[in-house]
Every structure is written in structure tokens, then in C-alpha cells.
Write a structure and sequence with these properties.
Order of helices and strands: HHHHHHHEEHHHHHHHH
Low-confidence stretches: 1-12
Structural class: mainly alpha
Number of strands: 2
Shape: elongated
Strand content: under 5%
């Protein structure tokens, strides 16, 4: 049996087994190491082992060289907010996000079929899209390329970042020739940071698989109805997938908060100096999470136009017959409007028009946008203490509660 065959997972077209998470070399290696099961069990073990493998050696090596809390470094290990935010907050959140996204996105493929959005004649094409998505998800070459990119570009960027602080840190001494790594810095640069960057790049790759799958489904002619009570032509189940990405958004926010905190504490910057950077990260996450859901806009808009036109013709015919039957000079002599369902039907017809006009062309809600934005910004909240005194924040919160 070859290495490639041991790293691949079976490609099943059962929509109940669809997942953008359960696959790839790392997933298979974690299974063999008994750090995950077939359905991402052992979450706590995975979080503890991976996070401590990245963070604990840094603590011990910094202690060994006297750079834990005091020493010649202007940024000792325990006071480096960025390293703790990265490995003790952001990394666990990236791992937690795998579990939530797997649970929330797994039913999506089945929903397309259960709701009969995919016609029987397009079922084979839909199955091909699922197979293609899982084949890409399992790609060995994709993860190999990620590792190559990280070691080719990630490590040099790390030490350029150390130089921008303008001070000696626990992981790099500033010399005339540039930053020189300490022993802890070597582990940081060649093990810890590449681990984190790999998890992050792997997430971007999975989102690419997700978008590619949705794009392929959007190329199939779906049976959408603008009269659907969900206000999204039958695609409301997609809007709920956004909440699965909350831990991913919080991980980005935590990483950004740690980076800004170091610059505030050691480079004299302020939180206000990072406002554009914060806005860029929030916008980036909105693109990652919401853009894949916009691929159905053309089909929904087309169904909305066609439905409005058909409903208009039907309403015109109904209105004429209603006028002929019930309005003065037209009502039959023996007829009574009391107990007739015609008037209620006319009102229902107007409600159907309103429902069509209110149908969203993309399955995105305002609550989802606000929720994802808040999740990204929550890790930055402690930095408000660098701008507003804690007493002032407490007073404002107290006044809001009263």
C-alpha cells in the first residue's frame, strides 16, 4: 500500500457524508495518532496537544535563557501578548471551528435534495460536484504546497515583523546584520509559527473548496420559488451556515489583537493607528464567509422576475373575475358576499406579491453580518483599556444598564 493511498479517504456521494473538513493528509495523520475520530471526536485532546506543542517549548526555552519575564529583552516571553494570543486563543479557535463547520455544513448537500431544489435529471451532476469537492479536500499536493509556501515566505516575514518592533525580543536579538534568532526563536520560527500558519492556510483552502462546490451547484438550474415563506426562495438553510464560522472570525480577531497590543506596548502606537487594519480584517472575513453565498443571486433574481410576471398575469385574471362577480352592477342577484372566500383570496394574493418583492436574492441576513462582525471585534475589546480608562468604561456600561 502506498503512502498516497493511506492518506486518502473514500469518496462517497451520499449527501449525508458531505464534509469540507474530514479529509486531507493532516486529518488522516491525526486519526492515526488517535487525536481525532472519524467525526472529529477528541476535540479537547486535539486543542490541548497542538496548542501546547506550539507554546510550551517556547515557555521552557525562554525560562532556560532567562527571557521569561525579566532579562535583557525588551519584550520577554510572558509579556509578549501576540504569542499568547496566537497559540492559546487563536489556535484553539481554529481547531474548534473545524468541529462547528463540519456539523453545520454537513447537512447542506442533503438539504438541496430534501427540498427538491435539484431536479432528478441533475442528480448525477450534483453527485459529481460532491465527489469533486471531496477529492479536492483530500488533496495531498495542496497541503504540500502550503508547507512549501510557509517555509519559503512565512519565516522571513516573521523576522521582518520582529525588526519592525525596533527592540530585542525573547525570540530575536537585534544586531547590525538584522534579527538573530534565539533558541526559543528557532522553535518559534520553524515549528510553532509554521503550525499556526498551516492551520490558517488550510482554512482558506477549505473555504475555497466550499465556494467551488456552491459555485458548481449554482450552475445547475435549481427549482427555486420566490413564494417560499423563508424569504430566500428556499435557500434559507444556507444563511444559517454563517454562524459556524464565528470561531474562525474570533481567531482572526485574536491574532490581530495580539499584533496591535505588541505595537501599542512596545512601539508607542495607539489603537486608533490600527483602525484601517481592523477594518481590512473585518472586510476580509466578510469576503471569505459571505461571498460564497452570493453565487445563487442570479438564479434567485431570475426566479423572482419570472414568478412576479406569472403572478401578475394570474392576478390580473383573478381581479377581472372578482370585479365581474362582486362589484356593483356585476354581483349576481342571489349572491351574498358574506361567507365568501373570494375576498380573502384576493387579500392572500396581495400578500403573495409582497412576499415575492421581499425575497432576498442572496441568503444573507443582517443578523449574520452583525454577528460575524462582533465575533471578529470581541478579541479587540481589551485594547479599549489603552484608550479609555477602565473606570470610564464601567461608568458607561452601568449607565447603559440603567
Amino acid at each position: 500500500m502506498t503512502l498516497a493511498s493511506t492518506l486518502r479517504t473514500p469518496l462517497d456521494t451520499d449527501p449525508r457524508d458531505f464534509s469540507i473538513i474530514l479529509g486531507g493528509p493532516l486529518f488522516q495523520l491525526l486519526r492515526r495518532a488517535h487525536m481525532t475520530g472519524d467525526a472529529l471526536e477528541l476535540l479537547r485532546r486535539r486543542v490541548a496537544v497542538l496548542s501546547l506543542f506550539a507554546w510550551l517549548p517556547l515557555l521552557l526555552l525562554s525560562l532556560l535563557h532567562g527571557e521569561l519575564f525579566h532579562g535583557r529583552a525588551a519584550v520577554p516571553f510572558l509579556l509578549d501578548v501576540q504569542v499568547h494570543a496566537r497559540f492559546l486563543v487563536a489556535m484553539p479557535l481554529l481547531i474548534l471551528a473545524e468541529y462547528l463547520v463540519h456539523k453545520r455544513l454537513r447537512p447542506v448537500a442533503e438539504e438541496f435534495l430534501v427540498r427538491r431544489l435539484v431536479r432528478d435529471e441533475d442528480r448525477d451532476r450534483f453527485n459529481d460536484l460532491m465527489r469533486s469537492a471531496m477529492l479536492l479536500r483530500n488533496s495531498i499536493s495542496a497541503e504540500v504546497v502550503m508547507i512549501a509556501v510557509i517555509y519559503a515566505f512565512g519565516v522571513p516575514v516573521l523576522f521582518r515583523e520582529a525588526a519592525t518592533l525596533g527592540v530585542t525580543t525573547w525570540y530575536a536579538d537585534l544586531t547590525d546584520a538584522g534579527p538573530r534568532a534565539t533558541l526559543a526563536g528557532l522553535w518559534y520560527a520553524f515549528v510553532s509559527v509554521p503550525m499556526f500558519q498551516f492551520l490558517l492556510l488550510r482554512w482558506y483552502f477549505r473555504l475555497l473548496v466550499w465556494m467551488r462546490f456552491l459555485w458548481g451547484v449554482s450552475r445547475i438550474r435549481l427549482e427555486l420559488s420566490p413564494l417560499n415563506a423563508d424569504g430566500m426562495a428556499g435557500l434559507s438553510f444556507l444563511s444559517r451556515t454563517v454562524y459556524a464560522f464565528v470561531p474562525l472570525a474570533m481567531a482572526h480577531g485574536a491574532l490581530l489583537a495580539g499584533t496591535i497590543a505588541n505595537r501599542v506596548f512596545y512601539s508607542g502606537e495607539t489603537l486608533g493607528d490600527a483602525k484601517y487594519e481592523i477594518a481590512l480584517v473585518v472586510a476580509f472575513l466578510f469576503v471569505l464567509v459571505f461571498v460564497p453565498l452570493t453565487v445563487f443571486a442570479v438564479q434567485v433574481a431570475r426566479a423572482k422576475r419570472a414568478g412576479t410576471a406569472a403572478m401578475g398575469r394570474f392576478a390580473q385574471r383573478y381581479a377581472r373575475e372578482f370585479e365581474t362577480t362582486w362589484l356593483p352592477n356585476g354581483m349576481p342577484a342571489q349572491a351574498s358576499p358574506l361567507g365568501s372566500s373570494d375576498i380573502q383570496s384576493l387579500a392572500d394574493l396581495g400578500g403573495s406579491f409582497e412576499r415575492m418583492r421581499a425575497t432576498r436574492v442572496v441568503p444573507i441576513t443582517r443578523d449574520a453580518i452583525v454577528g460575524l462582525g462582533i465575533a471578529t471585534l470581541i478579541p479587540l475589546a481589551p485594547l479599549l483599556l489603552t484608550v479609555i480608562p477602565a473606570e470610564e468604561i464601567a461608568k458607561r456600561l452601568f449607565s447603559m444598564l440603567l
